Amino acid sequence: MKKTVIITGGAGFIGSHVVRLFVTSYPEYRVVNLDALTYAGNLENLRDVEQASNYIFEKVNITDQTAVNALFSKYQPEGVIHLAAESHVDRSITSPLDFVYTNVIGTVNLLNAAKELWKDNYEGKRFHHVSTDEVYGALGETGFFTEETKYDPHSPYSASKASSDHFVYAYADTYGLPVVVTNCSNNYGPNHFPEKLIPLMIHNILNNKPLPVYGDGKYTRDWLYVIDHARAIDLVFHQGCAGEKYNVGGFNEWKNIDLVKLLCKQVDEKLGRPAGTSEQLITFVKDRPGHDLRYAIDASKINKELGWKPSVTFEEGLSKTIDWYLENEEWLKHVTSGEYQQYYEKQYN
Ligand code: NAD
Ligand code: TYD
Questions:
Q1: Quick check: is 217 in a domain?
Q2: Parallel, antiparallel, or unpaired: how do β-strands 211-214 and 245-248 relate?
Q3: 130, 196, 206, 265 - which has most CB atoms within 10 Å?
Q4: pLDDT of residue 84
Q5: pLDDT per residue as tens digits for the range 58-75
Q6: What are phi and psi of 185, to 5 degrees?
Q7: Is 132 a pocket residue for ligand 2 (Cβ < 6 Å)?
Q8: In a domain, 319, yes or no
Q9: Tens digit of each residue's pLDDT (9 = 90 or more) over 317-335
Q10: Which are the catalytic amino acids?
């Protein structure tokens, strides 16, 4: 094996796509998936690659510095791609401290472990921190987030991610740690946990349940197919400049209400239901506190410098995503049993 890369959060939504991409594209790498398997982590996401000879799973919680150090000392990674996080805004509103522990302290623990392991020679080493556009706060009706936009997080989730980004840059400035950071817009695609807008709506449409749209539904997000995010991470990890950040986005803005209507239309067509059937399920519900009006990424830096651009249109990506959920009912059943039911009751009833 030429290189060992630790990918944190590899059993989650985006992490599982990054693990698959690395395991299949780089047979000469040893890919170590470090994941605590919280409610959002699911090894079923990786069934197709778990037998690969260059793949290893390690159940470790990043809030445990001793365990993280032991893992780094065992595998001696040259690279870290850090995705493990508490990732859902609504959960951060009810349990902000969980986000501080994992997103802030967990990130600092990983930075400490990398710094300790690499301190004598940073040559060929890389710590890639995967962050979000939500650190920039909210836009009005116009404008875009660029790499120069000042941080202005509003939710406990985005505050914890902004804090983790600051620690990453602080370790670069103070200790010279070779870091890169990506700030990406909203992802969608296969294996997305159905607490987030798109998979929650698909799940509810399939089960003829109300489709809860927060507030007036005019909130706007910039959606990117998850595999295009994984491709961007691959490029930045390998070719990005040390110390730099790269915004990643879909150039694809949708108001929530329009997106939910499009989902209703596509699912109805695929199921052969009469047009308009699922739209009747749309229910406007109490707004999310501190709800950011609009996110939109200017991804021209990664496009110009590294040649990255989204590979699928939204219509294609959404159609593939719906097909995946229709073909993976068992997956959906597993992840929506148990804890999910309690979460759903508390959040929506
Ligand atoms: P996810 O919630 O689906 O997965 C998170 C993974 O991290 C899970 O496998 C979970 O088990 C693991 N994890 C959580 N706490 C842990 C801990 N203490 N120790 C070890 N593992 C732990 O999240 P996601 O949507 O795949 O997001 C991955 C990363 O990408 C996050 O850092 C998130 O902030 C960032 N991001 C997400 C989006 C998005 O739209 N989902 C957009 C931009 C950036
Ligand atoms: P979400 O998928 O939670 O991502 P984020 O908050 O990180 O952008 O939500 C996307 C948008 O959809 C956001 O404006 C909140 C809204 N939303 C609803 O209207 N209803 C829901 O049930 C959920 C989960 C989200």
A1: no
A2: unpaired
A3: 130
A4: 99
A5: 999 999 999 999 999 999
A6: -80, -175
A7: no
A8: no
A9: 999 999 999 999 999 999 9
A10: 133-134, 157
